[in-house]
Amino acid sequence: MSEAVTKTPQSSAPAKKRFLGVDVARGVALFAMLAANIYDVVDENGNPTLAGMTVTGRSATMFVMVAGISLAFITGGRHPVRGHLRRATSVGVAVRAVLIAVIGLSIAYASPDLEVILPNYGLYFLLAIPLIGLRPRTLAAVAGGLVVVGPLIILGATALGLQPVNEDGPTFTDLVTHPLGFLLQLLVTGGFPAVVYLAYLIAGLAIGRLDLSSTRVATWLFGGGLALAVAAWFASSLLLFNLGGLQHLMALAGPGADPAAVRNDILWNADRVPSWWWLAVRSHHSCTPFDALHSLGVAMAILGGVLLITKLRPARRLLWPVGVAGAMTLTIYSAHALVLGSGLFGNRPNALYAVTVAGALIFAVVWRRLFGQGPLERIVSAVSARARRAAMSWQWLTPRGRGQRVGSPAA
């Protein structure tokens, strides 16, 4: 969920209110991800589809980046929580992460052809807990470091022949039968490896520490993100088309391969291959530096654009349903995974997408008016809040106060 956070003087606990611009951005990411999961990347002739050229890959990046903004909001917003409150909040975040991962591992059985991102999502939250107190510039530096180092780790894993334990995404079964492979899939070998995707969450955490109500910040996000996306795209093009990268990668396909199909795969649907030239690829989910920078730039630009647009009252009214759906991404994403697993509408992706989006918007608006917070969001928030309150009532989180309640006399 997305909240703007202040601190109440009574408890120093985060006090939350909705931030429509961020909710709308999350809604945009949600509906883009639904399209990426419903439509094929390439058509029957091997040519990229509209979804493959636009939302595939970029939607997941934006999904994770906005999750980082949510993490910033629930850990203090522009003023990160400190001391015992930070430790208690970290417990709440950890519980939230585990619950999200459990939901993801559960629905993976109902949609075996979809690599559900939620288990990865939970891991990103866990890995980000030690970073919640860092300044935005430091967070940006950490994210930049991951963009450089993460692809090198993936390249090394590819060279070693490491493969995911489950091509369709990890499940509880994989956790029990192949725990090491399960962890490696979440960290390195899977479709959403934490060694790269964590950079998007950390970037969102840094953005969430800024004043997102500021027109200047929104403009900077839009312009800076657009510049980053364009620069990464053209740098990749220079390496691939002008410096021979594409030819080297095509040669790896071997004799007899269709050159046009191989070229399209490299540009739009690239596999990970043990070649340094792979690092120049910008294909979706390739997790190369250029893919990471380009997709992150796109996500930042869309966020900045949405923040600017939602400053206009007519736009706020028009986009409010998208924001409501954006506040229920866990519920809607989980429901769409179940719908995909059911085979509803067969091979009619346009009908499936239209019904899914319309159903999501109608459900979100009706549920919001009747009950408020989304059903899965309510469960996760309630359990994590209870864990946080429990942690606040004990001083075992501090070396000097283990086993004592807050306010109890010292031993």
List the helices and strands and how they pair.
Layout: E1 3-7, E2 14-18, H1 20-38, H2 50-53, H3 58-74, H4 83-107, H5 118-128, H6 136-159, H7 172-177, H8 179-189, H9 194-208, H10 215-242, H11 245-251, H12 259-268, H13 289-309, H14 313-326, H15 329-342, H16 349-371, H17 375-392
Antiparallel strand pairs: 1-2
Helix pairs in contact: 1-3, 1-13, 1-14, 1-15, 1-16, 3-9, 3-13, 4-5, 4-15, 4-17, 5-9, 6-9, 10-13, 14-16
Keywords:
disordered N terminus, globular, disordered C terminus, 17 helices, mainly alpha, single chain, two-stranded antiparallel ribbon, 411 residues
* Termini Cα gap: 40 Å
Label the structural class.
mainly alpha
- In sequence order, what are the helices and strands, one letter per element? EEHHHHHHHHHHHHHHHHH
Q: How would you characterize the largest beta sheet?
A: 2 strands, antiparallel
Overall geometry: globular
Q: How confident is the prediction overall: mean pLDDT?
A: 89
Proportion of residues in extended strands: under 5%
Give the % helix: 55-70%
Q: Which strand order does the major sheet show? A: 1-2
Low-confidence stretches: 1-17, 402-411
The total of helices stands at 17
C-alpha Rg (nearest Å) = 22 Å
Q: Give the strand tally.
A: 2
